[in-house]
Structures are given as C-alpha cells and as structure tokens.
Amino acid sequence: MTHLSITRMFPRLFAIMAVLAGLLAGNLAHAQLRVEIAGVGANQIPIAIAAFGNESIAPQQVSAIIKADLQRSGYFRIIDTNAVLTENSQVDLADWKSRGADAVVVGSVQKLADGRFDVRYRLFDTVKAAQLSSLALAAPSQFLRVSAHKVADDIYEKLTGIPGIFATRIAYVSRNGREYHLEVADSDGQGMQVALRSNEPIISPAWSPDGTKVAYVSFENRKPVVYVQNLVTRQRSVAANYKGSNSAPAWSPDGSKLAVALSRGGLTQIYVVNTDGTGLRRLSNSSGIDTEPQFSADGQSIYFTSDRSGGPQIYRMSASGGDARRVTFNGNYNISPRISSDGKSLAYISRRDGKFQLYLLDLTNGQEQRLSDTVQDESPSFAPNGKYLLYATKSGGRGTLGVVSVDGRVKQTLTMQAGDIQEPTWGPFMK
Hints:
Strand order of the largest sheet: 1-29-28-27-26
Pfam families: PD40 (PF07676), TolB_N (PF04052)
Strand content: 35-45%
Protein name: Tol-Pal system protein TolB
Low-confidence stretches: 1-9, 13-31
Radius of gyration: 23 Å
CATH class of the largest domain: Mainly Beta
Function: Part of the Tol-Pal system, which plays a role in outer membrane invagination during cell division and is important for maintaining outer membrane integrity.
Subunit structure: The Tol-Pal system is composed of five core proteins: the inner membrane proteins TolA, TolQ and TolR, the periplasmic protein TolB and the outer membrane protein Pal. They form a network linking the inner and outer membranes and the peptidoglycan layer.
Distance between the termini: 47 Å
InterPro entries: 6-blade_b-propeller_TolB-like, Tol-Pal_TolB, TolB_N, WD40
Helix content: 10-25%
Oligomer: single chain
C-alpha cells in the first residue's frame, strides 16, 4: 500500500503523519464557546420558568441558566413570565395552564453562613395539577452553574423520561500556531478549564467512564504517545509508547483498559492495554490497517475502522479479538465509529460526493440517516443519554463544534470568536 493511499483512507492517520512533518498550525481563542441553536424537537413541551427568589445575590442568575439549558435541548418552549416565585409561593396552576404552560418551575437562592449558595426548586405539572419534583442543592459559588444544570437535568428527566445531560462536560482541543490546549468545559461551553498546554499537537481525547480522567495522544516527544491524565490531581502516566504510532485510545466500560491503535509491528492494528501501560495484548491481525477502536457499552465487543475490504469500513469483533464482521455497507468510505450506550445505534463519518458528513445507523433494522449539513465533519461523540451527538466540523475556514439530536431535528453550533477547536468528546454522567 502506498503512502498516498493510506493518507486518503484515514484522516486521523494522515493527521499523525502531518504532525510529524510539522505541518499543523492554527489559532487559539482563550474564550468561552458561543452556542447557536437551530431547529426544534418534534413535540416541544411548553414550560414557564419563574425568576428565582433572591437570585440577584448570586454571581449567576440560576433561572436564566435553566432556561438556556432547556431551550438549547430543542424539546422545550419557554413561556414568557416576569414573575418571581419561590418554592414556598402559592402557585396558581390553573392560571399557568390557561397561559399555555404544561409545567411551571419556581425556586430560590440563599447564601449560607459558610459562603455556599443553596438552590431550591419545585416543578409542577399544570395538567395533572400536581408537583412532579423538588431539589435542594448547596454548592460553593464556583459550582453554582453546576447546581443550575442539575436542576435543568431533573426537569428534563421528569418531563421526558430521559436523563438530562446539562451537568455533563465536554473536552476538546484548541490550537494557536504551535501551542495546543486540551480544554474541558460544561456542556454549554461555559466554565472552560485548561487540562494541558503543549507546544506539540494533542489529539484523540477520550473520557474515562467515571469522568475523572482523560486519555489522549500527545506529540511532545516528537512522536504520538498515549497518555492518561487525572483531571483532579493533574497527574498523568504513559499508557502506550511503542515503536511507531500510538494512537486512538478508547476506554473499556470498567475503566481498567484502553483499546489503542499501534503500528509497532508494521501496519496499524488494534491492541488492548491496561491504563498503567502494562498487559499489552494484540486483538486484530489483518493484512490492512485497523484503527479507531471503540468498546461497546457492555464491554463485549469492539468496533473499529479497517481497510481490509479495499476501502475504509467499520467492523465489529469480540473484545478478546478474533474474527471481525463488517457493519457498514452504504458508501465506500466510512470511519470513526461510535456506538450508543444501548448498543442500538452506530454513529460514524461517511464520505459521499466529496463531503465528510455525520451519519447514524440503526443496527436493529439497518436504516441509515445523515445528521449533519456541513461537509468537513469528524470525531463524533455520543452524549451519555444517547440523544445527542457532538462532532467537529469547519465553519468559515476554522474548526467549530456541532451538536445534533439523533433524530436530526435539533442542531447547535459551538464556536469561539476567533480560533480553531477540534477533537471533541462528550463526558459521562457524573455521580
């Protein structure tokens, strides 16, 4: 296989080659992501969210964060209200129902003696004339946004039956010339923190199942090496540093192992290794390139990209290795597999008519759907509730992040005022 054919097949492998040649460059913005929303869900729930009592004492307006979360989901229609209602207020549910609201949210914010902020809220169903939920959350000021996100998560779950993902986090890479940042932010792009700064490229970040660590590939040693970094202590260790390329880390569901793509034996193949770098074991053994492994949620299978059939397609094999079964058949170029938590859906990037776009395959019936309208998509990542996909794309010649619901109806764009962001990954539910 020629160098040219390899680079055309796998953009991730091509990125590695380009990095080694010193070809990557870009711009970094030290700013929060800006969210733009397009589209709505199939059946929007009309909901009134009153201003919380005493929330002006807090550094952020809690009710505004809750509104923004629910509106961003695409599945709620916010009923305008200028009312201030606390969790102790007498709420006229019949009146709110007459205004078109199926649900009403009320609450308050109090500052405790130890400096923390106590957020209390109640959720009412106007149709059933009943309270659906209530929460009381106390947190330091720096975690006030998290409290608001948790309230929004509770509302989302109580009204849809699906766990909310507003209190989860995302990670991505931003770049400026030869300076690269691995950044972690709230799901709405706020609260950004830099996990790693490097003068060499960083690619392929992947969250641990418990959300405390991120595995990634760094070129700081002038070659691709897989690291695992603890986001709490900032300590990190080498998980894979073998001859050739070490790339594409993916966590096992129990957090004990990483599936990686290594070229130590020549062509890139799939291996599994303990997170501390011990216990390396080869899983695939093909005459082509096998890369981009992903564990299924039950840990029994690994999905990966391979050119063994002549062009890049997605395959599935046992997590212990062995024979592989081809999964994608539409189109002649399908890469970057991501499997949903219920094992029923496969997201991937497909090149068709010269466009790299995000697709979703229903593994139960074989139906395929294109989810993106952009043409340079990569790095898809499921939200932990399986209802949204995060991916990287291009807008105005620079990297941005896109979010789309799995039914394709709700689309969001996360951008910076200036700069280039790429390689996104959506973190797990935090316990």
